[in-house]
Structures
1.
Amino acid sequence: MASSLYIHIPFCLTKCDYCDFLSVPFDEAVAKRYLKALKREIRLRGGRTLKTVYIGGGTPTMLSPEAFEDIFKTIRDYFELSPGAEITVEANPGTLDRKKTGALVGLGVNRLSIGVQSFSDAELRMLGRCHTAREALRALKSPAVPNISLDLIYGIPGQTMKSWRQTLKRAIEAGPMHVSAYELTAEADTPFYEALIEGRLDSPPEALVVEMFEYAIEAFGENGLHHYEISNFAHHGFECRHNLNYWRRGEYLGLGAGAHSFEDSRRSKNTGYVFKYIEMLSKGALPVEESVGVSAEDEIKEITFLGLRMTRGINIKKMGFLAKAAGELIEDGLMLLEDEHLRLTRRGLLLSNAVAVSLFEKLELG
Ligand code: SF4
């Protein structure tokens, strides 16, 4: 049974131009109905002992301290929390203040993941974010939270090496225990994608994006934040346990609209329509839209694809055939076999998807 719980809160103040996550504008009446449905789903699916809880979105911190109290009370009533469980809440700097942070800590939250994205106001405007760099800095000064993670984005149109260096400098000075740095990608049907297609925006040159990624690895590494996953850096012992479970292909339970679960070799997904989610639970039905068994072939693909995201790589003790198939990729300097682990080299990390696909071809996996 899964020992990791994800809860999706699909509300945001405004929609960021590049975002394709499941989120709708915050509406108090809808949020109230959603929380009622969410509590029903928690009651229906409880009965597990949890090592990690991750409340993500959307923008969970759109919710009031009272709403969080309600959610955590229901979680504690229907699940067992292991001692020392990692409890994360995602936060947007524009929706976080001392009172809310204090309330979250009081409820047992021991990790905040703050969506800073950039310390340049011009870049934040370009991304359509609803907060400023100053608000992000204020949010990062929450002494009550022992473990703060911040999210950054690189490869933003108009972003220069100078501004990225400045963002990294400020991020490091803020002293987070964990940082996620993502390359901006153009997801279909977003205003950002449309602007690129219509030529109103230009993507930065690929060489610059690579330089930004490599600079981040160096800068974080020099400051004790080791690179443990393609986009993630942490001080030793502060790697995100919830996400490590995904990459290690552990089981997890996802509650809320659009949330995914993986249990008993089945992957399932809740409906992504907020009103349908509310309606189904009001009738006492589980809001599951899709549930498929994972084939043996898919299992190998998942282990490979997810495992290669981690800089440690894949333990090949029971998967010697992977090392065999990787022969040419190792010769080409894209992969490395070390300590019974198969992993991507620095060059391989830059081409991770292509390397995984090439490995699947060698394994004759479609
Ligand atoms: S705050 Fe996050 S989830 Fe909400 S619109 Fe922006 S990127 Fe999407």
2.
Amino acid sequence: MIQAKNIHKFYGDLEVLKGVDVHIKKGEVVSIVGESGAGKSTLLQILGTLDLPSQPQQFQTEILIDGQSFMNMKDKELSKFRNQNIGFVFQFHQLLPEFTALENVLLPTRISGKNEEFLDKAYSLFEDLKIIDRLHHKPNELSGGEAQRVAVARALINSPKIIFADEPTGNLDSKNADDLHQLFFDLRDKYNQTFVIVTHNNKLAEVTDRKLVMKDGLIL
Ligand SMILES: Nc1ncnc2c1ncn2[C@@H]1O[C@H](COP(=O)(O)OP(=O)(O)OP(=O)(O)O)[C@@H](O)[C@H]1O
Ligand SMILES: [Mg+2]
């Protein structure tokens, strides 16, 4: 699902990624752990098409997501590729405050332009995530755990092949965190979706299929 070779990233003189290779199979749940500043979020942003590696020609960088290279895609093509293949969950839910939970979840479907059929999918996600009675609440009327589950529903609405999560439960109590982790595994079992999860949660990291440890810009 992901084949990446020789990812480098510089911020000015600071080399944040020093030639990272990553191979992740379809249906794997992989965790990425490591000290603050190791480069985990930077790597996730690049694998998730939200950022580009530095000097890919020079370093002969390759990144394939489901066999496709996105590094040379133009903006429009890249947005479409991301929208169809990739879901994101961040530490802070990043829901839009002026929209209801349901509207937030349906936002990514506007690009695909097939709103009707997505309504059923949205309802079933709200059921699965146990937030069906919060459909019309706005983010500030939701608890942290509920808002985070809405963000997960938004990440899943387009049935992405791969979900990138950056400390998705960093902000939740341990019960909510455990529930959300379990959900990731359930989704993998049900839909064979692939999960790459940056986490400081050891309990989660230990139960994933594979734990990648990052240190100083490299995977150990
Ligand atoms: N836009 C940026 N400009 C300059 N330096 C940056 C930028 N983004 C990240 N960095 C630096 O790159 C390094 C890696 O950052 P990154 O966010 O990937 O770390 P991380 O492993 O996710 O850490 P954490 O666990 O604290 O989230 C850090 O030293 C950070 O200060
Ligand atoms: Mg980070």
